[in-house]
Design brief:
Blueprint lengths: L1 H23 L8 H8 L3 H13 L3 E7 L6 E7 L4 H25 L2 E3 L6 E3 H5 L17 E2 L3 H16 L7 H14 L1
Antiparallel strand pairs: 1-2, 3-4, 3-5
């Protein structure tokens, strides 16, 4: 089922492959992190990281109680994916917006790069107006040339249009790499 594919890819993006495996083997709710680790056969640090990530995305909650024997505070975890569709749609829309900002940047900025593609520079940077590079790469010392992004822009426009019809497909594994690249470009 396509929605399940998107949900699994979304969860894997949130918690990683080891966290996803833990989720797949997750027993009933109301267990401590140590009990979950024992039940799933996962390492305790993976269980804790996964649970806190799910908590941050409102897909898990906990009840704090005191252990009567030791006096220590225990977290009893409850994982609830009832809201995952809305979370998936919200996060997908954020990623789509990131991709649209990247596309806007590609359409409205002239970039230069060297043959080694060490980095990309705006015209002001490449020309020396702001950084003094004078069309020479500061990394490899090769000349900087106009970076024709028309093929990339065409691909991005097509992918954005495709994703707008099914925004959750952003989380399909084959689409995630483009969005990770978009997020890196925007940072």
């Amino acid at each position: 089922m396509k929605k399940d594919k998107a949900k699994l890819a979304y969860l894997e993006k949130l918690v990683g492959p080891l966290g996803l495996e833990m989720i797949k083997r997750l027993p009933d709710n109301g267990l401590t992190d140590q009990q979950i680790a024992q039940e799933t056969g996962s390492e305790l640090n993976i269980v804790r990281r996964t649970l806190f990530t799910l908590y941050e995305h409102h897909l898990a909650s906990y009840v704090l109680e005191r252990d009567k024997e030791t006096g220590w505070m225990l977290y009893r975890w409850n994982v609830d994916f009832a809201d995952i569709e809305r979370r998936l749609a919200d996060d997908a829309q954020k990623l789509l917006s990131t991709l649209e900002r990247w596309l806007d940047s590609e359409l409205n900025t002239i970039y230069y790069t060297c043959d080694n593609h060490c980095s990309r520079f705006t015209f002001d940077m490449a020309s020396g107006n702001t950084c003094g590079y004078e069309f020479v790469c500061p990394v490899c010392k090769e000349n900087l040339y106009y970076d024709d992004t028309s093929e990339l822009v065409g691909t991005m426009q097509g992918k954005i249009n495709e994703l707008k019809t099914n925004v959750q497909s952003i989380f399909y594994p084959e689409n995630l790499s483009m969005f990770e690249l978009a997020q890196t470009e925007q940072e």
